[in-house]
Specification:
This protein has 2 domains: 3-210, no CATH class; 227-408, Alpha-Beta Plaits, CATH 3.30.70.1230. It contains 14 helices and 8 strands. It has helices at residues 3-14, 19-31, 33-45, 54-73, 85-97, 106-125, 130-155, 166-211, 213-221, 243-248, 252-270, 292-310, 344-354, 365-370; strands at 229-241, 277-281, 284-289, 316-332, 337-342, 361-364, 375-383, 392-400. Strands 1, 2, 3, 4, 5, 6, 7 and 8 form an 8-stranded mixed β-sheet that branches. α3 runs parallel beside α7 (130-155), α6 (106-125) runs antiparallel to α7 (130-155) and α7 packs antiparallel against α8. It is elongated, with a radius of gyration of 33 Å. The relative contact order is 0.08.
Length: 415
Amino acid sequence: MPEDARDLDALLQSSRGSRGSLVAAEFFSSSAHVPLAIALATLLTGSVSSWPMIIPVLAGGFVQAWMIGTRAHRGGRPSFLLNLIGVGLFTLGVAVTDLHALGSNPVVVVYWAISILVGGCQAVGARVAQRWSDSLLVLEHVVRTLTVLCIYAIVGGSPGRFLAQADHRFLVVATILLGVALGVSAVMHRRDRRRLSETVERLRGWSEMLLGRSMLTKAMGSDDDLRPRRTRRSVLFADIRGFTKWSEMRAPEEVLLMLDGVYAAAESACAPFKPARTKHTGDEVMMFFSDPVAAARAALAMREEVGAYLSLYGLNIGIGLHHGDVIEGLVGAVKTKAYDILGDTVNTAKRVSDHAAPGRIVVTFTFFEACRDRIVISGDQHINAKGKSCTVLVAELLGMKDDQPASAEGSTADT
């Protein structure tokens, strides 16, 4: 996976919360419920000799929360087995201290029942339709709220007659209704988070199309990275030769279809060389690079791939390259901005591309000087570039002096 893709994915993952925050949320919202109830009952009703059991009980809940939170941080779905870690460690501790009483210990039975129900609701809920998942989430919260009552009934010494008292029946009904209310609230919260996540992904897609993944990664990291600044770039301009005449007698839909193919072919050809930005304007494609060698390789690759595509329409492409200082960053009005580059370097690259014959790549002498040990040129000449006060020395790019892997060149790092 490209480095900028990993960086962007890492930034988006961090928006879901750190591992520590997810572990803490899991501990206090679920994994600690039964351990805390057991610990409280032990402190208030048990003998002092039983107090040391509190530590492994809480530790088991924390280990379970750590495993579940870590899995959530990595984007994994809820796991049934991970919800059994706490009760498993608790059962092991009880077995070590009093193996004979293990089977008749009601706290162990209640802990297992709650863990199985909660784990089952989470695991099944992640794999069924939304309406069933919502119902299971409500059931999960009802089970959670009943935790304290179950431990209270056991501590009272007569769980079988617990419902015989009216005040106990009131507590049970009120607790169940409270669990339902909390469950419905959790369902609404989860739906809001799902809609927010879908919106974020949609905005991410649009932002990548407008900025490019590399620029989007920078934007999410710091606003300062997108502020206009002076830097050196190699600018590539490509223009379809004969486009105006060809499109004159075509329907707009046919023209759009052809241009979409050109854009796709250009981006596919140049992707290995990591252009800092790609911009499409009608039948023109503009890219800029921090490495002139990468720009030269991209131009050669674009000529082959886009040229082959345009030959199906009886057309071809001309490409111009220039290297120099630009202002790069977000430019525009207060509320409407676009990431772009400005300066004479951009204008010169455009004028040079206008002088490129079909299937040819023209470079300025300034561009040649930036990578003269790596490229092969021919036929230098002075041209009168529109809007320029003096002629521009250019030459035709024939190829590269070496056969290094194309993907080894190029970088979007600032110069």
